[in-house]
Amino acid sequence: MTADTVNATLESWNDTPARQAIVDFVEQVTREGGPGYVPPRERVAVFDNDGTLWCEKPMPIELGFVLHRLAEMCETDVALRDRQPWKAAYERDYEWLGAIMTKHYHGDDNDLKVLMGGILRAFAGVTVEAYGDAANAFLSAPHPTLERRFRECGYLPMIELLRYLETNGFTSYIASGGDRDFMRPVTEEIYGIPAERVIGSSNALSYQEDEQGGTLVYLAQPDVFDDGPTKPVRIWSRVGRRPVVAGGNSNGDIPMLHYAGTKARPGLRLLLLHDDPEREFDYTAGAEKSLERAGKDGWTVVSIKNDWGTVFADAGG
């Protein structure tokens, strides 16, 4: 199933307060003459990707891609096998890799810096086209536990929500801590969101003139890490508007969720809760502060277990 075959009726959502909150909000902002009316050009929605639009366990999908590249490097340079992050990649240490973002959300970036150093070295000199092709190919690999390809790990209810918002005059963007160029090859296929509406982390680029019209290659240095308070900054710099809808699932999404709407204009803030070990995963690590904030500020918490009748498009439940 692709984004253009998904209906816009929220069919896979159960009839719960979370679904009703979405419907009520959309009716409010689209009712011309009403106190909460928002013109279509200002109906901007932003969503995190990992853990919000698609599965992020046992580790973010992008880390699987990075792991594959780092393990390849170990085959030609055996000395790397004893150094992180190559050691974790070579030994398939999912625990070390999967804990990186959880530690980040608790304020410990030591392992994240180690990983970023490896990524910069792994992809330095690679063209944006070659990187995109490799990412696209990797996403056809099987998820380690969900019995589906990585590109089939998008959440059907969230894809339906994107279609529902689109039908009601919203323009949706992805604002993710994940790598921008890893997501871009498939966001239109999976979510119906074109590449130009993907905001994410990135490595620095360099232009190299050639006979083919010029080439962009990655440098061994970072550009931006799109997480936490950086998300609202990047949203404004790319979109030029404050969103009225935001969806996330972790502590790193708090500033983006808070930035949606104002006291004078309604905002819908959705926080996805992973509480379904049977159909997906059950965890709150890295989301403790966001759940506390949701309770304090009245954000809409979306329970995978209770609010979704279906999680994945072909799962049947």
Could you explain the architecture of this structure?
This protein is an alpha/beta fold. It folds into 2 domains: 3-57 and 154-307, 3-Layer(aba) Sandwich (Rossmann fold), CATH 3.40.50.1000; 61-138, no CATH class. It contains 12 helices and 8 strands. The chain has helices spanning 17-30, 61-76, 86-90, 94-105, 110-123, 128-138, 156-167, 180-191, 230-239, 254-259, 288-297, 304-307; strands spanning 44-47, 171-179, 198-208, 215-224, 245-248, 268-275, 282-283, 300-303. Strands 1, 2, 3, 4, 5, 6, 7 and 8 form an 8-stranded mixed sheet that branches. The longest helix is centred in the N-terminal third of the chain and has 16 residues, at 61-76. The model has no long low-confidence stretch (mean pLDDT 93).
CATH superfamily of the largest domain: HAD superfamily/HAD-like
Outline the low-pLDDT stretches.
none
**Biggest sheet layout:** 8 strands, mixed
Our count of domains comes out at 2
Q: What is the number of helices?
A: 12
Strand content: 15-25%
What is the CATH C-level name of the largest domain? Alpha Beta
What helical percentage do the residues reach?
25-40%
From the spread of the alpha carbons, the general shape counts as globular
Based on the structure given, which CATH architecture of the largest domain is correct? 3-Layer(aba) Sandwich
State the end-to-end distance.
Answer: 15 Å
Global mean pLDDT: 93
CATH topology of the largest domain: Rossmann fold
- The overall strand count is 8
Structural class: alpha/beta
Please trace the helix and strand order, writing H or E for each element.
HEHHHHHHEHEEHEHEEHEH
For the CA atoms, what is the radius of gyration?
Answer: 20 Å
